[in-house]
């Protein structure tokens, strides 16, 4: 029996095989979607860049070369993306910037997703005054423009990449809570939930074991699609000088730095801009593909 | 003594929908009791009120002589279990059969789960090969067997059956009904079966209650049903309808 047959078996022999088979089927469905694979490769490339940045980057991202000779050099074989006004190699900075971007994206996902899921499923499942209170809190957070609220947080906590992450995470969970609540409302009265109730399952068991797994996929899709927005918000905060602080190679801050000479030395602002564009596109493509695979309601 | 006793049960949803209006009946231990009626007659709601899924506005449900509290105690669920109408909706789409069957055992703290799961699958005529499948890998009849196995795994004394075969093909219906019949004889279970199909109820139940518009119309025994001895006009209509299509004879 080949590994493929083992995975696709209609008669799995163990829990592990059933789970592996299910994951493999999802992977096959995702693999058949070309654009999603492009997105996946971009995201994987971002991860690889972040991990191997010191190996890939030919120069130091923070310390530039000779200020008399190497400032604002156009792209060449020596400096693939040119150099900036402090004679730093932009390619090396973009590589190291991938670390910051990935950190922002990962931390926001790790902070905002559980908050949104927990609040949404709890509100949807329990209903009543719990629902009212939780959803009004969500509404209040939703009512603030995201960037403005993030700005307020950052100005309260002080500028810096960590505070930017906290600010973005605190402002990005309400849509997930809404989504999880809507999903929960559609399944809370379904027969399989009633069946679990009739077995004497506690509320917590139903919420975690039955409701959350079904809300998870659509929330994951939504988070992936929001990644582009998160990257842009982080870049926007960096651009405004409230996110990552110089000399950190954050892409938004790099664009802000290159703004002054955008006419004469276009590459300084353009290169990190391209990086933001490509990574955002990658997350969007991956999110679309995941939606096709994971969301049972989206018919192909 | 009656195993399940429903007395003057009223169920009101919200403020205006009066789904059940004063229904009373008793089911003895080991008996199979049917509730028949058209769609919207409140027959499923009676079942849901017994197991606590529908709110009891007034009246009482007694199990083994003791009035049931709302919400029900954990012990009640070990004694009374339910099989739902639609096997496509009553199994969690992301849980394997193994998970479906082991969850009630985990909730009630059973220890020999492996043996019980294999036994339960065997009891409903599914082999071990089905254990780690997902519901989408099963047919409707197989799913309903899993749902029956789930209800039986806690070894209840009463099984509430909410149209257990109406979502299945005719050939599968007979299989599932025979399975339910066999299990009842083997274990001495008490059944309350809800159906719109008089033939199914006549096959499965010794006594039955006819319901219309949330009210009990008439209680019949199987013998009287088969002899067509209905006293109420609605029951007679129902009996006539159950004979199916018959060409009009020229008068």
From TrEMBL, chain A:
InterPro entries: BP-dependent_transpt_permease, MetI-like, MetI-like_sf, OppC_N. The chain crosses the membrane at residues 35-57, 100-126, 147-170, 219-244, 265-286. The keyword Cell membrane applies. Its main location: membrane. It is found in: Cell membrane. Residues 98-287 form the ABC transmembrane type-1 domain. GO terms for biological process: peptide transport; protein transport; transmembrane transport. CDD domains: TM_PBP2 (cd06261). It is a multi-pass membrane protein. The keyword Protein biosynthesis does not apply. It holds the Pfam family OppC_N. Keywords: Cell membrane, Membrane, Peptide transport, Protein transport, Transmembrane, Transmembrane helix, Transport. GO terms for cellular component: plasma membrane. Belongs to the binding-protein-dependent transport system permease family. This is D,D-dipeptide ABC transporter permease. It comes from Cereibacter changlensis JA139.
Automatic annotation (TrEMBL), chain B:
The keyword rRNA processing does not apply. It is found in: Cell inner membrane; Membrane. It holds the Pfam family ABC_tran. Its EC number is 7.4.2.10. SMART domains: AAA. Residues 4-238 form the ABC transporter domain. CDD domains: ABC_NikE_OppD_transporters. InterPro entries: AAA+_ATPase (IPR003593), ABC_transp_ATP-bind (IPR050319), ABC_transporter-like_ATP-bd (IPR003439), ABC_transporter-like_CS (IPR017871), P-loop_NTPase (IPR027417). It is an enzyme of class 7 (translocase). GO terms for molecular function: ATP binding; ATP hydrolysis activity. It catalyses: glutathione(out) + ATP + H2O = glutathione(in) + ADP + phosphate + H(+). Belongs to the ABC transporter superfamily. Glutathione importer (TC 3.A.1.5.11) family. The complex is composed of two ATP-binding proteins (GsiA), two transmembrane proteins (GsiC and GsiD) and a solute-binding protein (GsiB). This is Glutathione import ATP-binding protein GsiA.
